[in-house]
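To assess whether ligand presence alters the predicted conformation, the chain was also submitted together with zinc ion. Input:
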Amino acid sequence: MIRKSEKSKFNEPLSETVQKLVDQFGGWLNVFSRVTNSFDRALVNLGKTVDCPFPHRHGNGGGKGKFRLSASDVVGHEGRGICTCMQDGGMGAVALLMEDGVGGGQYAQCLLTVLRALDPATKDTHVRKETAPVVVGPKNSVMDPQEVARRKERLDLIARDLVSLDHPTAAPARAYFKNRGIPLNSNIQDVKFHPGLKHWADSETEPEKKVLLGTFPTIVSAFRSKDGRVVNFHRIFITADGAKAPVKEVKKICSPMPGFSGSAITIAKTEGRVLHVTEGVEKGWAIHLVTGESTKVAYSCTTLPTVHVDRAMYDSVVIWSDCDPVKPNRTRQSGDGQYFAWELARRLFTEGFDVTFMMPDGNPANAKGRDWEDVIVQEGVLDLSGSYYRFQTLKTFAAKGGVHKRQIAA
Ligand SMILES: [Zn+2]
């Protein structure tokens, strides 16, 4: 006969109960957003740096672009916050929540709040903590002139050695696009080549340290602000034969100059008043090859909603959205790619553009499905003749055949 354990469940330390629940939910990364919205930005950009949710811990800079949540696959390390305002190794999940004021910043109260948010008996009545939006005053929105000069100098240093993609030395970049099935032509605009840029990565063991992983041929694209100034570079590190460089972060941006918000990379600029907008250099180029029309790309889906489009130059915008999986246990019932792309569609429509929204159809809800570059290459769309026929073909792969919103003529 098996006797039930004599240990009462009330003897189990609260921390153990909470950790078990957290494990059931798939780890802390799935739990943060049930308790607070302060880490949403870091969750959307997992492993990448975002503004520190604790600006008060920083000096004048306010921790802009200093904080990231670790996506490490080292057990027990996922969900750690790492920032220059913290000691080496960063802060664990519970410490982060306490710092955010969950449970009044008290350890036991904080654990009880997490328990309430996860426990099947209470989770439906639990209301998560909504923090007031951070108001950026004029003091914070102006970058220190010395910092601006330092960033400009770094961008200039890169710009000095850039060559156009048809330059003899740019063969690795041409091979990269060709290998992907989207060969280059002379329409490519603000995308250039650098023969060798250093790739620095965060140290695995000491978060504050950077490690040099090597020098690689690099595809360098320019972000231009609303008024056309170069405000940052996007870099794709590759190999001599046009493969992705053997590093974790193949794509990186530099520290942005003022005006980065709303900026985009001009992939192609042609006649006509239609602009195609998407995220990512390669996808943008694939879409230009299909349509033959002007194309701009944002850095990532989270920066899509702010992309500036000049009403004097364009009448219609076609937005090519990703179809990302729905994050488990998120309030938002839509993946990030389409959520932010739809935000852009809404904004541009109110600014007076005709808007077409193209999102790949038939992707699984729980996994990363095909994006438009995949569809274009895998379905052989570039082998079809005529941009009209190619676009119509892509519509057969779009949710609802593509959604059009037209301005009503007065
Ligand atoms: Zn910080």
